[in-house]
Design brief:
Layout lengths: L1 H19 L4 H22 L24 H32 L4 H10 L1
Length: 117
């Protein structure tokens, strides 16, 4: 299972980097989202995959023993999802404003418009 997840993480990183190298700012934002998903999946995979083992301490015990799921990667991923959503929402609003001002989403034309202004 870890091999499949490693391949998926690699594919997400490759797809995200490919989209970020395109000239369209829409593809840049989609690539940024793919990179965020790849990072979340990587953290999830590193945190070990344990089925049916919740991160709970048994009654009367002082610490967790045996096989248990690590709650820290799950908390990190939840935080990263919220931050990633905020960044993507900001990028979309910025894209809308740039498109209204310049009438294009091509990064090269935006760079040329910067020198003409």
């Amino acid at each position: 299972m870890e091999l499949i997840l490693a391949l998926v993480v690699g594919a997400l990183y490759a797809g995200g980097l490919y989209l970020m190298m395109r000239r369209s700012i829409v593809k840049l934002i989609i690539g940024l989202a793919l990179l965020g998903h790849a990072a979340n999946l990587l953290i999830f995979t590193i945190g070990r995959l344990d089925h049916n083992t919740p991160p709970l301490i048994a009654s009367g015990a002082q610490q967790m023993s045996g096989s248990f799921a690590d709650p820290v990667p799950q908390a990190l991923i939840l935080t990263a999802i919220v931050i990633g959503f905020g960044v993507q929402a900001f990028a979309l609003v910025l894209l809308k404003r740039v498109y209204q001002t310049l009438g294009t989403d091509d990064l090269k034309k935006m760079h040329q418009a910067d020198f003409q202004a």
